[in-house]
């Protein structure tokens, strides 16, 4: 008799979501996006012809039938895991993934998160090089290139994974010394600039309808990460990219003195050579970036 087996990827997504009680946590464990888990669960529901989860805004709950189904299939996944460990199946061959990304993004966003990828994939070495060169001008060969976008380059597939806006930020200590009840009070402060992004402050001041304002002083740095570090150190006020300052805001190293306006910015995207787009490791790293990007979006 032919075995009645549902799609195994869909079953795996359901087991993880049901066990963890969250599509988001299941996506993190499986290193895929929240949408991928939702799609696989929906596929299993269509295959079974039964509803597995009740959707309630941002949370989900197992139906009674799904709870009983999970109770029977859940231990099977554990048995498979134990059998795999017991019989010592061959481990994946160690590989190195070559990545090129902008320096500020690498320092303030990618590096603090790489430990989670390495912990989940100990056989994968990630070689990161930093550069702001355009994708088509890079001298080396990379499997994953991270740049702003979305842009189109011949021979590359593009996928956005992290949105961003720009907003003034400063240290809490600076705000205590010189409060900022209104944007006009910026005139008492030092504005921090980055030479490669000269329009950030003029554009924001224009949006805030104080374009003619003259600050007490100005400092310009050649790298964005130096500008942000100067803000953390209480030297002045910087235009902070929301994606790259989220950790500093959460830790209290930086604060946003104003609710707005916010300047729109380009998203971070992965650009992968067409000949590498089907590579399993490249796809895994891209999915991990997508998952981390979705988490970051919720914090901004």
Automatic annotation (TrEMBL):
Gene3D superfamilies found in the cross-reference section: Periplasmic binding protein-like II, Winged helix-like DNA-binding domain superfamily/Winged helix DNA-binding domain
Keywords recorded for this protein, A-Z: DNA-binding, Transcription, Transcription regulation
Start and end residues of each HTH lysR-type domain: 6-63
Keyword Transferase: no
InterPro entries from the UniProt entry: LysR-type_TF_proteobact-type, LysR_HTH_N, LysR_subst-bd, WH-like_DNA-bd_sf, WH_DNA-bd_sf
Pfam families for the chain: HTH_1 (PF00126), LysR_substrate (PF03466)
CDD domains: PBP2_GcdR_TrpI_HvrB_AmpR_like
Similarity-based family: Belongs to the LysR transcriptional regulatory family.
The name this protein goes by in its record: Transcriptional regulator GcvA
Organism, scientific name: Paraburkholderia dilworthii
Lineage: Bacteria, Pseudomonadati, Pseudomonadota, Betaproteobacteria, Burkholderiales
Gene coding for it: gcvA
């Amino acid at each position: 008799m032919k075995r009645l087996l549902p799609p195994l990827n869909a079953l795996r997504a359901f087991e993880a979501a049901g066990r963890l009680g969250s599509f988001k946590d299941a996506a993190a464990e499986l290193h895929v996006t929240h949408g991928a888990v939702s799609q696989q669960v929906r596929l299993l529901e269509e295959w079974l012809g039964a509803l597995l989860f009740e959707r309630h805004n941002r949370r989900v709950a197992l139906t009674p039938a799904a709870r009983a189904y999970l109770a029977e299939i859940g231990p099977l996944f554990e048995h498979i895991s134990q059998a795999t460990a017991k019989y010592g199946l061959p481990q994946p061959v160690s590989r190195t993934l070559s990545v090129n990304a902008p320096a500020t993004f690498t320092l303030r966003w990618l590096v603090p998160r790489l430990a989670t990828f390495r912990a989940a994939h100990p056989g994968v070495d990630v070689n990161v090089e930093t550069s702001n060169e355009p994708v088509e001008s890079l001298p080396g060969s990379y499997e994953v290139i991270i740049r702003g976008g979305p842009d189109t380059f011949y021979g590359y597939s593009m996928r956005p994974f992290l949105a961003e806006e720009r907003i003034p930020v400063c240290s809490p200590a600076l705000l205590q010394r010189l409060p900022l009840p209104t944007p006009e009070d910026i005139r008492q402060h030092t504005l921090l600039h980055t030479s490669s992004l000269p329009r950030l402050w003029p554009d924001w001041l224009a949006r805030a309808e104080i374009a003619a304002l003259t600050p007490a002083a100005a400092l310009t740095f050649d790298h964005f990460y130096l500008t942000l570090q100067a803000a953390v150190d209480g030297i002045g006020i910087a235009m902070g990219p929301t994606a790259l300052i989220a950790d500093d805001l959460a830790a209290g190293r930086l604060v946003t003195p104003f609710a707005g306006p916010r300047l729109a910015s380009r998203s971070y995207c992965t650009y992968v050579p067409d000949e590498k787009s089907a590579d399993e490791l490249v796809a895994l790293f891209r999915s991990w970036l997508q998952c981390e990007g979705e988490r970051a979006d919720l914090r901004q």
